[in-house]
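Hello forum,

I keep getting stuck at the same step: I have a sequence, I want structure tokens, and every attempt I make locally crashes halfway through. Rather than fight my setup again tonight, could one of you with a working pipeline run this one for me? It's a single chain of 245 residues.
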Amino acid sequence: MKELFLEDPRRKGWWHPRIGAKWTQTYRDLYGNSLHRFDELYDDFFYHRHNEVWRGKATERLSALLGSTHMLACGEDLGMIPPCVPEVMKRLHILSLEMPRMPKTPGQEYADPASFPYESVCATSSHDMSPLRMWWEEYYEPTAHYYYNCLHRGGEVPPSLPVDCARQMLSQALSAPSMLCILPLQDWLAVSETLRHPDVKAERINDPANPRHFWRYRMHLPIETLASDTDFCETISSLIKESGR
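Reply #2:
Ran it on my machine without issues. Output:
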């Protein structure tokens, strides 16, 4: 019971579904009507029941926030979000965050950067995700699907991210219709065999699933090294020019 529900601290005898209930052994033991009913309750609680409350509060608070600054706002609308989020963001002209590895269309394995909306920020990874090189080596099957279906390449999938594949992935992101394209330094450096970090695991900034993983990433090269690397600078320059940015 307590693996699936959390007791309301303010109302004795009232219980709410746990956010992580579907990853517990108790949930895996459910079957038939019990499983169906719990899924209905869980989805209603997290995605529908409070939608109007969230919409009203978001509109009220975000409107006040936007009215106090001339800065352009961007929302991290990834993962488990209620339906009102994109509606409110669109109405208030808050840029969405779009990444190929985190599609927003149900059933889609990877998002096509060419389909991203104009009012958005396109990125290849974020501080809470593995950078491109680390992701490439984590799991073979997702990498293979991306290699064949998104990069449209043939032959055997390379065990580590090749420079030409990294360049193609950055080119696709830069060519997206998104108003802004902001790419992590680690993914920029992936296009250079000499500048990329020798330890691919050291490139990760944060792992939200690991409370002992701290924000220890630091650029392993002085800025002067990047500025003096003619090939790297020309590659970055050509990628940006080719995209029309």
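The chain has ten helices and five strands. If your local run keeps crashing, start a new thread with the error log.
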